[in-house]
User: What shape does this take?
Amino acid sequence: MKDDANSFIKRLCGFSLGPVVSAFIGFIKTPLLTWLIVPEEFGRASMFVMASTISALFIYLGIDRSFVREYNAEKDKGTLLWNSFLIPFLFSILVATVYILFWEDLSNLLFASQEKFIIYALSFSLPFSILFRFNTLIIRMDERARLYSSVTIIHALLNLIIVVILLFAYERTFKSIVIAQIASLVLIGVISTIINSKKWFVGFRLQKDLLRRLYKYGLPMIPVALFSWLLTSMDKIALRTWASFDELGLYSAAFRVVMVLNIIQASFSNFWSPTAYKWYENGVQGDKFIKVSRYLSVFFFLVFGVFVIFKDVIVLIMDQSYRLSSPMIPFLLFMPMMYTISETTKIGINFSRKTIYIALITLVASITNLVGNYYLVPIFGGIGASIATGVSFVLYFWLGAIIAIKHDFLVDIKFFFVNITLGLLLAGVSVFYGNTLIEVLIFIAIILYNHKHIKALWKIGLGFVADFKNSRILR
Assistant: This one.
C-alpha cells in the first residue's frame, strides 16, 4: 500500500474533524461549567468521570483491542463482531449488578455521600458503553471518516445541550453533569447502532479458534485496564484522599484545559490503528513509521511549548476561583502528549502480539505514579499530582519504546531523548520559577533542534493546501 504525505494527512483530517469540533464544544463547556458550579461540585463530577472511564476500560476485557487487531485479517466481519462483542456485553451487565448491590460503599468512596440514583445511572450506562465502543470501532476500521466525525460531533452536542438544560432547569450541582453524560451516551449508543444496523443484523456463529485468538491477544489487556486505571486516575484519588474537593476541582479544571490536546490524541489514535495494521499487513518499511513518530512528536512539542508559555493567559477564560490551576498545566501536558507519541512506537509490540509487555509497561508506570502522588500530593497538592502524572507518562513512553526496539521495531532514541529532556526542563522552569524569558529560550532551543522536521512539516502542509484546492478533504 502506497500512501504519500498528502493522502496520509487527508485521511487524518477526515478523522480529525469530529475530535476537533468536539474539543471546541468541550472548550466552550469547560468555562461555562466553571461559571455555573463551584470547584467542590466540579471535583465531585470529576470523580464520576473517573469511575465511568475506569469501568468502561475494564469491562471491555481487552477484546476491543483484539477486534481492531484482527479486523483486517478476518474475512467474516459479522462473525468477528459478534464473537468480540457478546462476552464483554454480558460482563458489563454483571459489573452493573455488582455496582447496584454495593451502591452505598461505591457512593461513599466516590462522593463521600449517599448518591443512590447516580450509582444506579452509572450501572445502567455500562452496556451502552460497550455498544457505543464497538459501533465506533466498526466505523473506524471501515475508514468511514466523515461518518466517524459526524457521530463524534453529535455525541458532544448532545452532552452540551443536555447539561445546559439541566444546569438551568434542574440544579447547579455535579448531578446535572452526571445525568447529561449518561443520557448522551445512551442516545448516541442507540443512534450509532441504527447507523451500523447492517453490520449487526447478520448471521454468525461462535468460533472456538477465533475466540481463542481474540482472548489470547485481549486477556493481557485486563491487567492493562487495571494498571491504566492507576496510571490515569491515581492523581484524582490522591487528591481525594490527601487534599480537598476544592483542590480536586482546581486540578480538574487544569486537566480539562490539557485535554484540549485530546484533539490530537483522539484524531491520531482513531486514524492510526487501522492505518498502522494495514501498513504492517502490506509490508510497509519501518522508516515510514519513524517519519510518522518524528513529525507527530515535533508537532506535539511545538503545541506543548505554546501551552506552557501562555498557560496564565489560557486560564483567564475560567471563573477567577479556578485561575490558581495554571501551575498544574505544564506537567499534565505530558499525559496526552507522551501517550499519543507512544502509539507510534509501542505499536511494534502490538504487531508481535506480545501484549503481556504492555501490561508490564503500564504496571511500572502506574507504580511510579502511585509513589509520586503519595509523596508529592500532601506537600504540593494539585501541582504534585501533575508532576507525578507527567513523569509517569514519560516513563510509560520510554518503556514502550525500549521493548519495541527489542522486538525489532525502529525507534529514534536520540531524537526523543533530546526533545523530552527539553520539554521536562521547560515544564520545571514554568512551575517552579515562572520566568517567561527562560521559558521562551528553552522553547527556541526546541525549535532549533527540530528545525529540519519543522521545515519538512511546513512543506507537507503547503502541499496539502495545494492539493486541497483541487480535491475534497473528506472522502
